């Protein structure tokens, strides 16, 4: 048994949220042990996602606009938080062409209603920027976020059959591989962060004046030697394992959470498709294409890419391998073909794209039904944030967009108790 007594802070989970929390604490002079089951930081959902820094358009069905408002807050602080923690290295992360939003005829909201809600989001965005001159969207301060376009204008490069409308937007995606690499370097360069890779946390116990985190070493995914570390405060940022670890400390969450396993395909696009717009279809279970400047694109598509759905406290062990990018070649090829051919009708050229990588990520949210249900909880992503219990902080960042924001808030919750 490896044991360490420490009066420091333990952060469990080195995704983007945990890394930001640890780096922010270290910048404030707090010593941190950052525990991660994988061999490197930012190897799970924060790497294997679409990279979109949301401005709220996807969440237009949230009539209160609380979800778009939260996304805008995350989007307007994303660059400055990450740059402040990485000596400016995170300044140039934009990797995609701007998003066009396609509205299918069976969208939950028609184009006129979407236009009204997009305008309200734009007003929120512009209001926040005028309140705080230091805010920016990935280094830019656009004076508008979208404009409606015609299907005729889109039909030169997108398939518009079955579509009811479209919008051009200023929304973009970042390069998650570059982001992961910058964050890993920042962790390595920060002497107050001790990074413990290959450490899986399995339990947390409250002690007099602190906590004990226990776990096992991970080597080739087999449980290895047991370890434990004591800490004055603990931050749990383990995404799809958060409820499980909270439970070991006796913290119960209200029912209704949902874990979904979503696959993505990264592929090299044919010349005819290259540098076309990135596309998201709204509102419903449709799909996305993110066109990147290096000639590759991200593809995701419902229902082909949605391969897991559970209300269990944590996803089954079978999700582990694809979430680390480990997939048998035949399964990867079949998944790529299913997703790319399903996208071909609305993004011509997709079926000719050459798959480079197929992997998956877990999505944690609250909801009982899918996004085609107008009453689905998945339209509301505001049940997130930092939940503190006397020195134990459990953090759900909700999205990549809001991960830096909630990583910083978690660090502030810790500092507030020191
Ligand atoms: C396919 C897909 C597309 C997405 N697209 C977008 C998008 O375009 N825009 C957007 O804003 N969001 C998107 N998201 C959501 C986004 O990826 C997540 O909200 C975000 O990355 C979560 O960050 P995190 O740091 O909490 O989680 P993670 O990055 O998963 O980090 C959690 C870390 O905890 C570690 N861990 C877990 N359990 C343990 C344990 N027991 N012991 C030790 N370590 C542990 C994990 O290995 C991992 O490194 C997408 C998600 C998916 C899956």
Q: Brief description of this entry?
A:
This protein is of the alpha/beta class. The protein folds into two domains: 2-45 and 180-255 and 381-415, FAD/NAD(P)-binding domain, CATH 3.50.50.60; 98-172 and 256-379, D-Amino Acid Oxidase, subunit A, domain 2 (D-Amino Acid Oxidase, Chain A, domain 2, 2-Layer Sandwich), CATH 3.30.9. It is built from nine helices and 19 strands.
Can you describe what's shown?
The chain is built from nine helices and 19 strands. Strands 4, 5, 6, 12, 13, 14, 15, 16 and 17 form a nine-stranded mixed β-sheet that branches. The relative contact order is 0.20. It folds into two domains: 2-45 and 180-255 and 381-415, 3-Layer(bba) Sandwich (FAD/NAD(P)-binding domain); 98-172 and 256-379, D-Amino Acid Oxidase, Chain A, domain 2. It is globular, with a radius of gyration of 21 Å. It is an alpha/beta fold and 418 residues long. The structure holds flavin-adenine dinucleotide. Flavin-adenine dinucleotide (FAD) is lined by residues 12-18, 35-38, 43-46, 49-52, 54, 200-201, 237-239, 241, 262, 264, 361, 363, 397, 399-401, 403. Flavin-adenine dinucleotide binds at residues 12-18, 35-38, 43-46, 49-52, 54, 200-201, 237-239, 241, 262, 264, 361, 363, 397, 399-401, 403.
Tag the structure with descriptive keywords.
418 residues, alpha/beta, FAD/NAD(P)-binding domain, D-Amino Acid Oxidase, Chain A, domain 2, 2 domains, 9-stranded mixed beta sheet, 6-stranded mixed beta sheet, 9 helices, 19 strands, globular, binds flavin-adenine dinucleotide
